[in-house]
């Protein structure tokens, strides 16, 4: 298992990211965290480790620079700027296509909360590169018109007690059409903090990515 910390040059100064590459990786999953979180999110890190165990490389990245991530009136709106976050994700996907270790691997996107919307917009803009998407407790509705342009198989995972978000995901699944599947994790709230619920997310996400990232993308 190779771990490296990199700066991805998609903005001035770069974006900090942790890349974990298991031997014999069959694909790579780029994580997009929700507002107020970071690449050190314990939930995303836990899911990433389980994906690594299934021969999936992972890229956990801070989508905001340190200056942008200071919560004040000037920067607060950046956390919810889906268009900007999606552009950065798409640029990171492009960077992954230039990285010698990651280039041969098919790409999946794992988005949480607002990161799920940004992931779907990015997937719509890179249909030939993004092969699968998983949303955890996401707000896919915030992807707007981009939903109808998503071609990647998309799994929407929502906690059974997260009633408002279930409704929003049902609406988004209808917009996504046949590429999407909505699954409810019983007994889970929005952050999947209940015992065993995050393990269910990791297991279902791992199976989804292992299935849809099976065919390597041309180098």
Automatic annotation (TrEMBL):
Descriptive protein name: Dienelactone hydrolase
Family the entry assigns: Belongs to the AB hydrolase superfamily.
Residues forming coiled coils: none
Molecular function as annotated in GO: hydrolase activity
InterPro entries: AB_hydrolase_fold, Dienelactn_hydro, FrsA_esterase
Keywords: Hydrolase
Domain of life of the source: Bacteria
Domain Dienelactone hydrolase: 86-198
Claim: Cytoplasm is one of the keywords in the record: no
